[in-house]
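Lecture 7, part B: from sequences to assemblies.

Below are the input chains for today's worked example.
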Amino acid sequence: MAAFWLTLPPAAEAQMEFSLDEVEEEEAKAAEKQTSEGDLIEELAASDDTASDSPAEPEPQREEIAEEIYAVQQIYALRLKRVELAPSAAFTLNDPYLKRYGLGFAMNYWFTNVLALGVNFIWYDWGTDPLSRGTDLVPRIQNQFRLGVPINDWQFGLWANFTYVPFYGKFKVRKKIFQWDAYLIGGVGLMRTQPIPVFDPERRSFDWQNNVAFNVGAGLRIFLTRYLTFFAEFRAYMWPDKFENLRVDPAVPEDSSTWLESGSTFVANTSIQIGFTLFLPIKFEYRLPK
Amino acid sequence: MTMCARKTLLRISLVATLAFGLIMVEGLQSDNTVSAQDVQVSGPLAGAPAVMNQRLWRDMRLHVEPFFAFTIGDEYSRSLIVGGELRFHFLDWFGIGGWGGYSVGQLDTNLTKEIRDKGGVTNANRLDLPTNDGYPDQIGRLDWWSGVEAHFVPFRGKLAMFQKVFVDADLDFFVGAAFIGVEERKNVEGVPAQPPAEAGISDCIIEGETGIDPGCVGSQSARSKRVVIAPSFGVAFSAFFKEFVGISFRWRGIPFKYNTSGTDNNRDGQIDSDDRLRQFNNMFTVGVIFTLPPKIKTTR
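Predicted structure of the full complex, as structure tokens:
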């Protein structure tokens, strides 16, 4: 009671000078009235006996309501507790030596409306000679600068990621309104790579090696329906990789322990991925507060 | 009289082409299969425009945009650019403008450093690489940038950031012509090595200079400058925070030919314009938009 009294503005205090007994009496009356009326849903669900009673005439509104009412549009598509399946194509942007293409698949579970946990997988190994996908920069570097270029082939990458949606909005295109969101993504996983023997291909051969990899990225998703979206994202996949040793030991060229560089080289594969996402279940319900 | 008739015919053709284009676009859009959210409103808002009290960020306003940019995907050297852009929008979705910038810094790529540290020099590649240490001096660089562009803003909307900050945003597509100040290695002709030396090139003759350049060392830092005219295009995402302030993230592509490595790329024993290779030069720009007049107009 004291707290209620303190929250009142000074003007209201001045107009309401009741004794404590009067206030308690008013509160009791209000409680009695509330019990008898109930809310609209309760009234509709009430038995026929109640319904057969002659309905009371609604009392005329005694005070003008000058309250501002805001119409807020519901979020077009909720992600909460939905699974997202996302096939995509990946194109590496920053490798000057090899053209690299991957097919990817991602699966996320949205445990809040803006936060998801998931995995993504990209397959890069299409059974072709990786050097056949080489750019014209490789022979230029070899011929013009007498410089060998160690190149690693990639098989696949697998990552566990968190996705966060800090931005969402809508775009108007003529009479259509497209909902979209922008997200940040990042995670950890592995990248499977293999050095291509260039400096001593007759003797050297390499197995696939697993590298711990990290990734960060940002993406844009446009909702075509409430369950189908088109997305484009920028991802930077990073890992420490082992490349072929540029030097061939003339004494023991067969010694496989000398085939790889002693240290690791930090590799950052920046790529663009485009694809579609499907949200499951396809339908969802809004649970509006009463 | 004939000229007048030709002009009239030309105008009619132009209008007919535009009308045909509009009809086609309208026709295609009326059979739209994309099922985005339709604005289907019943009740008091039926028939109301899709957006009421829409803020016209561009209509009859001047945009002044200082920016910082950097080139991406370069083989040998990246440019850091500081510049500005001026645009006037006759309509909320159309405007024209010009931009210019100066490369305040050049960052050599890892490949350039590798060549400097590990490249091999022989008579077989002397024209391409006279010395290791001097390699960064011979690569092509882009000194300044400018251009004129037409801007189209077909998509606009609003976005929420962290469900707290709400801003208007749009996508600005632009196309135009760019003028770039290119600095390349000067034209050089190789002098074949004389026996008993190994085959290849031992010295050079620099264009416009008399005498032999021993070992082509002088040619490595001899420079020539020219202006390239090239198409430019791109897209920008702009967000407006105040009536007269916004921010833009812009990607711009400018394809043109130049000799990025300063080498004899067609292997004809000389370095000249035939050695220029097509490069898809592109840059990423971050700019701050100031609009004039500062007061914004809104629709009904």
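Note for the exam: The longest strand of chain A covers residues 151-173. Keep this in mind when comparing with the next example.
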